[in-house]
User: Fold these one by one.
Assistant:
Number 1:
Amino acid sequence: MSLPEKPDLVLGFTPLTDCAPLVVALEHGHFERFGLRVTLSCEPSWANIRDKLAAGVLDAAQMLAPIPIASTLGVGPLHQPMVTALSLGLNGNTITVSTELARSMTEADPQGMATVSGRARALARVVAKRRAAGAARLRIASVFPVSMHAYHLRRWFASAGLRADRDLRLIVQSPGRMVAELEASAIDGFCVGEPWGSLAVARGSGTSLLATHELWNGAPEKVLGVRLDFAERYPETHLALVCALLEAARWCDVRENRPRLARILAAGGFVRAPASVLELSDFHVFHRYAANFPWRSHAIWIIAEMLRWGQIEKPLDVRAAAASVYRTDLARDAASRLGLSVPLCDEKTEGTHAGPWETAGTSAPIELGPDLFFDSSEFDPSDLIGYLARCEATDLRFPLEELEALQT
Amino acid sequence: MGEKLRIVLVDEKPERSSDLALALVSEGYEVVARLCGQDDLRARIDALSPDVLIVDMQSPDRDVLEDMQSIHRDQPRPVVMFVDESDRESIHAAVRAGVSAYVVDGLKSRRVKPIVEVAIARFQEFQALRGELASVRATLAERKLVERAKGILMLRRALSEDQAYQLLRRTAMQRKLRMVELARQVIEMEELL
């Protein structure tokens, strides 16, 4: 293995429990083992992470999976090609509402509260009641306009006929402020990464409605993002970084290590929350089920959501866009250096496996996890047009035919 | 010349934002509000409809502001000033200084640039002041650690203050450590024993 061209790196992260692979790679000396000297920079916002990466103040960063795609496509206020060769994990968010809203939901539909879809219907009843009474729309917060959080919420709302922005206000708040905002009644609920949902429940100010793996099991969440020109100029550095984080993610995934992981996160001050709520739930998947592989089908799903909710203004070749950001080739290079087996295919159908299943790998078969959606829907990445045509709620900005004409 | 640009500042540090507001006003700009996280940002900004937003990058409100785009979907919407890639140098300077700027779409970048330059200069000055303060504080904290380590050595090895200091200095040099790092190790060992 050649030496990294740029051994001194600054990595951005946000204080959430799933920053764990970055912290563990630092604390356990994985970066050093791959010839890197890394400084971690705690960032107060996702916008900062994106802009600092774009400006070269950060070399790489933990990012919400949709951010490198959005930056590459110019969705949002910045246009900068970025790539990812590493998914940092699957699942990990929860939807929590104020105890008051939870009570109203139970009153409105006691039976509904038993299931994930039923809870959306209960929410819809509360929304209808409030509208009839002339009350203000409920305010539910996600963490960023282009985030899995926002897409999970929008899809869950839509399943009960609720439209974000029309029936309730879908706003943005930074993760560290969610609990305080809920307690100040500035918001009525939120979808956020751990530990903030657990903290609201532990403080008695929030009621957990669901964890997002109940909406889509094995959903993508965070990735390691770098600028495209960084990946091209410093290929060895990029690979070394991915290898170090792969090793750390493997360690984080071992259940016996999780109590220690909580202590590392708390002791280092990486996440400012009591250690008792930092213990990671089982739904965090850091390595098993090929969790670190940047599936192009994940990118295609994310782009489909951006299209569906009107965030993308012009038609585009979706598969080509996904391939330019989600670099499965680089992911395979890194895994082969560590002797890890990685999937041979770049895409998979989502929503068809209730339990673990197997796929062909570079050196050995690979076990993949369950991948069901809460509404029994399926997502076939090679039938994007069909998928969008079936979506009832959509804010697509142009006729579907124009999109279809561009697909390869 | 065109109409006066309406500027809103979002900054958690009132000293800095009042300083920047004065500087901008003296250059002939109109600062319509100085906001911080406590305010209902979305509502305030919606009502003020500024042309330019100057935002402290340390503010967690940046993500809240990103969302303004979805509020203003069908109106002229704010774009981050970094969109204009013609000048990477000034982008870099802004990010390093901790300034981000959101600008209403369609505004000529040559009209915005001087505003951002004033902001960068003020943020840099503030940073420099903070930097000095921080290093003064660090030195004090380091001196306290060395004092504690010295005390431990005096007690454990029955040394005079000067002897303890010399021992720390010599050992630090031999081990290629800074005095304060060695002091930290001594204190940690003492806590273990």
Number 2:
Amino acid sequence: MNFITRIVILAFGALTRNIMRSALTTLGIVIGIAAVIGVVEMGQGSSAAVQKTIASMGADNLLVQPGTASSGGVSFGSGSVITLTPQDCDAILRECPAVASAAPVVRARTQIVYGNKNWVPMYIYGTTPSFLVVRDWQELEEGDMFSDRDVRNGSKVCVIGQTLVKELFPVESPINKEIRVGNVSFKIVGVLSRKGANMMGLDQDDIVLAPWTTIKYRVSGGTLASVNQSTSGGGDVTQQINSLSQPYPGQSNAAQYPVQSAMQMADTPQPVRFTNVDQILTRASSTEEIPNAIRQMTELLHERHRIKSGQPDDFDIRDMTEMTKALSSTSVLMLRLLVVVAAISLVVGGMGIMNIMLVSVTERTREIGLRMAVGARAADILRQFLVEAVLLCLIGGAVGILLGRGGSWLVSTILHWPTQMSIPAIVAAVLVSATVGLVFGYYPAWKASRLDPIEALRYE
Amino acid sequence: MSLIKLVDLYKTYHMGEMDVPVLKGVSLEIGRGELVALMGSSGSGKSTLMNILGCLDRPTAGEYWLDGEEVSNLTNDERAVIRNKKIGFVFQNFNLLARTSSLDNVIMPLTYTASNMTRAEAKARGKKWLERVGLGHRLDNHPSQLSGGQQQRVAIARSLVNNPPLLFADEPTGNLDSRTAKEMLQLFQELNAEEGITIILVTHDAGVASYAKRTIKIHDGLIVEGAFQDTDAAVAESNGQVQPVQVYGVL
């Protein structure tokens, strides 16, 4: 007969011989484990909910910005070179598995006019619909987000934040109204839900979102062109081809400036201006994946921008270290709290086991004497009682896990508290209950094994 | 060769400062297949001698040869193995495990045998012995569902399940009525005759002792009668003349 099964059968037989007492003995472990499992599941549920909330504040967001331009030792600060393209954004999304979503951002700052009201919003962002996914902002108050098709077409549509609603549309619904951004007219297709201030206290609702193509070519295109000395108005090849840069159809730049001859153009070559974006906002698939996402994006951009190792990067990636720290610190705190609770309840349960095992050893003195008389060695007796204690604790642990799972299920279905099953907690519960059995069962078992068979047989 | 041979055995208990000698130089020999009664009044050293013979205790001095092996200096664990393999015990109060079937009670000693016997084999062995003691129809009964005599039969089956050459019965009839006691003693005689098991009946009752072929009497730590087989021929004969039934009148 298999040695271990024989011992387990023996211990099981001894335990079932007094089922009521075994059940009461293990009650301490049952309650302890059930409490731990229940609390861990509820704690994990609420911790996950809190983490989700913090994540919606942008903790998982990673910001890719163009690098620094410098000239003659004078640095122009972050974002002063033009290196990021919308294609970079697509590539990041396609080739970095740790990045869940990405959106290019083109910024503008100009006046917005509706009727007799006007306002200069903090943010005018040209982007794609996935911006809302990145910022965890999918719920719109009214209307819909503009579509990818709007982005391709450079449609003059926009989505506005709550602050703009307050400033420009105090009474009427803004949906389908036309506002003027700079000198381009946009139709409002949606209103964002309220997000409030960010961690720096800046109002995040003071925002206009529009397709980046529209912002790039219709709103900021002209202004950027004038700011950027490398391009000048009608001389720009891309702008000539791209009629989008003309805010008012029919207007011709040629009327204002004399047309350059081919000779002139060849003499004064203009750098070809590729389509750039001001930043790429990405979101890591989870908080743990942030370092991976940064690594993957860095590698990808090195490759795409042909930056050899040793050369300075032409981009920067920022993460929200502060928020990430806050995130992990809450979960660490929660975990420590649970460990303390678990330890206390299991020590109490273990004491119960030890007590009853001691009583059991005394009560079964004659049995121990008999077993020794028929040839049980001290080690056999020790093992028998130890296995009994561990088995008792394991059964208690199993019942406790079921009870804890049941309890958390009840809480989630009746009270609608968020709960989350925790496999590590279950594994730990099993290990801990076995350990409790070993530790607290050892003394009684040792006492039993030290009995003198003659005395034990005579014990009344 | 004899199964048991004691040579000048001493046992002294230490009670604080005092040394209490219990066995004061016991020598005896018991051959294979004998049915011996060990008699003595309480305080005579009878129980101590039985504990040493049963390998439950160690002598202070002297030699104990059991089955050709000197066992007086073995460790606790070694003696446990000897008890398991060579010695069966039957107690006055049966000492059965409560709420455990007769069969499980009988095969309990097999748990500690190193042999890798399957549970089915163990059960078959237990069943065989229960049938041998006449309890083949009570395999699944718990001790509380059995009469005293039946419980003692279960205990006998348990003591024999490892096929030991030696069986100790410590006041085996002390808790039984006279009719059952007689049956029990006849069962011992039967086992002794048919299975060739050496049986030592430990008792203070001359009636019980009369079932044995030889009686060893101990008094005040010394054997006063029947220490060796040669001398017991006369005793056996005289026992043979006394009818056991008559002796039971004394009980």
